[in-house]
Structures are given as structure tokens and as C-alpha cells.
Amino acid sequence: MSPGATSDMAPGRWSALVWLALAVFLAMSPWFSAAAILPHLRALWMLTDGAAAWLTLAVQLGFVAGAVLSAALNLADRATPQRLILAGALLAGVANLGLLVADGPIFAMLLRGLTGAALALVYPPALKAMSAWFRTGRGVALGVMVGALTLGSALPHLVNGLGGANWRAVIVITSLLAAVGGLIAWHVRPGPYQAPAAAFQPARAWQLLTGGRMGRVTLGYLGHMWELYALWAWYAAFFSQMWSAHHLPDPARGAAFATFAVIGIGAIGCYVGGVLGDRWGRARLTVLALGLSGSCALILAGLVGAGAGLPLLLAVSLVWGFWIIADSAQFSTLASELVDPAYVGTALTAQLALGFSLTAASIAVVPVLMRAWGWPGAFVVLALGPLVGAIAMRPLIRTGSKWGVGQATPPGGAQEPGLGQVITRKNSGG
């Protein structure tokens, strides 16, 4: 253990991690509630493929709008994260419940957009709140947080699989879970490393993400996001089609359970990614995860084209689901370590806003690609994202030696951990 490391281990940090992770897991559950019940909504409202896609896209676009506004106002650095999480979770739950009275896709899209905007007050502040509890081992801590997000995103598919045709139960349960998550976060006290409230600087977000090493981190994160939510949003439709092609009964139910497994296994990937990021270095871990997830996309494309059986398709999909999210928290951790501490919340929110803007494009393009070239063509295009991301991140591995500790000064003037310290660590504790 390096000198002074014990002073970086705040008492109660593991308890805070457990409660905040549980809060995120519950609060983010409305995110994919509409995607989980999409077959029911298609039948109810006679939705076209385009309208069905917009129901999913509306959440992404709403999140982007909420995150952009939050970043411009520096909300995550000017307000208590716990208050933002509570407000966002309650608003998301109410907007999600609105689907019960929606009379058509237009109103439903507006509600889904509002749900996404509300969740922009949950996820970035939760990452900042956890950063205030951890200095050493932050990669693992944020990995657990993103793992909670992953499980929360998978939860509606499990509820749908268990609930069968009762799609209203999915909406009610996920809305209630969001409210409970917000209340849990409200009772978690602030961490000891929380920076004082920042000054209002609307242009700060863009400056934080585009300078020097953070520019490469941002590009790597965008490559990661290009494939992530496209897989999460469309996997149920893909596996349902594969299920039907094998003439098996109840494809919607089978796809619901498969999708829960493929998304949910990413929670383990987040933890493993955090451990490896703290031990090996964050850039090295991100390049590994991007390479493996992109390879899985290409392998799955080949298997579908060759008419492979469901067990093999699901096995490769599970590996993809594991590695596609394993690097996500490490991009957030890099942002929290490389930028001015007073604007960590703004940087995280802006990073997410850019990433989710790109997910809207990738989600929209998947059905177009699928109609033109089938699922193999769609998977090949998704693999381009991690390729670009790995190319962007690879030079950061070579910037510092494994044991080196460099120093640099970020735009905000605060001391930034050197890349040798951030990218690779001597201690397994980060």
C-alpha cells in the first residue's frame, strides 16, 4: 500500500456503495420498461416499425436533453446529488406510470422522453456521489454503480417474462421501484471527498471533455456507446426472431428471459472491469473490453449468417453482454480523476450527454440496417464503434510506464493525477 493510502479510505464507504448501488438499480428500472413490453404495445396501438423505434429513441433523446441542460447549468456540481436523485427518480416513476393512460404512440413518446430527462438527474449525480466516497478503489466502486444500472436496465425484461401478458404490471412495478430507489438515495449521507459547490460556468462542460487526454477518453467512450444501447434496445427483437425461426412457442417470453440474461450479466462485467481497471490500468482495460465486445458482434454476425442454433447464439451473446459494459465505468472513473474536482459532476453529465446522443443514432439505424442486410449487417456496423474507441484509447496505455507517477495541471488549475497514476496503478486497491 502506498504511503497515505489509508487516509483515502473513508469509513462507511462500502455501506454507502451498497445503498447507492441499490438506489440506482431501482431508480433506473423505468428506462427499458417500454422496450420490455413493446410487443404488447405494438398490438395495442398497431405500431409500425418506425413508431416502435421512436418509443425506444424517445428515452435516449429525453436523457440527452436532460443531461445537456443539467451540464449547462452545472446542476450536478451545484446541488446535492442525493436531492437530484430523489427528484429524478420520483419524476421518472410518475412519467412511466403515464403509459397506463396513454391513448396512442404520440403521447407515449412524450412520456418516454420525460422519463429519460428525469433519469438524467439520477445516473450522473449517483456517479458523482460515489466518487465522493472513494479515492482508492474508485474503479471498482463505479463499476458496481454501473453494474447496478445494468441490472436496473435488465429488470423490466425479467418482470415482463414473469408477468406474461400483463404489461401494465411491468409499468406499475418499475415505477414503484424507481420511487423506492430515490428514497434510498435520499438517506445516503454525502461522502467526505465531496467538493464545494462550483461556480456557474455554462461553457465548462465542453472544455472539460475535449482537452488533451480527456479528448481521447471521450472518443473511446463514444465508440463504446455506439454499440451498447443498440444491443440492449434491440436484443429482445433479435432473439424473438431467432426463436420464431426455430419454430419454438412463445417467442416473446423466451426473448424476455434471454434479454434479461444478456443485459444482466453485464453487471458482473462491470465489477470485473473495475477490478482489472484498478490493477492493470483503465486504458488497458478499456482497449481489452472494446476489442472483445467488437469481436463478439462480428462472431454473432457470422453465426446468424450461418444459421447457428439458439444455444450457440445465446452463449456468444452472453459473452458480448459481459464485455460490452465492462469498460463503461472506467470511462467515468477516468473523467472523475482527470478533470477539475470542482466540476466532476458536470464532466460526467456532459460525457453521458454526448454518449447518449450517439446511442440515439445507433438505435435508429439498427432497424434500417436489419431491413437492408439482416441482423448480420447490423452487427457488423455496430462493431465499428468499439474499433474506433480502441484506436483512440490505445495511445494512453503507452503514455506512462506501469509504475510511473507523472503530474499535470488540468484546465481548472487543480492538480490532476498523472496518467501513470490513473491509467496504471501499483496497488491492487487502485
Using brief descriptors, characterize the structure shown.
430 residues; mainly alpha; Growth Hormone, Chain: A; 20 helices; 1% strand; disordered C terminus
Structural notes for this entry:
This protein has 430 residues and is mainly alpha-helical. It has one domain: MFS general substrate transporter like domains (Growth Hormone, Chain: A), CATH 1.20.1250. The chain contains 20 helices and 2 strands. The protein has helices at 13-27, 33-36, 38-45, 49-72, 75-78, 81-97, 105-119, 123-131, 138-163, 167-186, 204-210, 212-245, 251-264, 266-280, 282-305, 310-323, 328-338, 344-382, 384-399, 419-423, and strands spanning 407-408, 416-417. The chain has a two-stranded antiparallel ribbon with strand order 1-2. Helix 6 packs antiparallel against helix 7 and helix 9 packs antiparallel against helix 13 (251-264). The longest helix is centred in the last third of the chain and has 39 residues, at 344-382. The protein is globular. The relative contact order is 0.15.
Order of helices and strands: HHHHHHHHHHHHHHHHHHHEEH
The main sheet orders its strands as 1-2
Helicity range: over 70%
The average pLDDT value, as a whole number, equals: 83
Write out the CATH superfamily name.
MFS general substrate transporter like domains
The CATH class name reads Mainly Alpha
**Structure classification:** mainly alpha
Low-confidence stretches: 1-6, 400-430
* Total beta strand runs: 2
Radius of gyration: 21 Å
Oligomer: single chain
The CATH topology turns out to be Growth Hormone, Chain: A
Distance between the termini: 10 Å
Q: Tell me, briefly, the overall form.
A: globular
Number of helix segments? Answer: 20
Q: What's the number of structural domains?
A: 1
Q: What amount of the residues lies in strands?
A: under 5%
Largest sheet: 2 strands, antiparallel
Subcellular location: Cell membrane
Pfam family, one: MFS_1
Protein name: MFS transporter
Main location: membrane
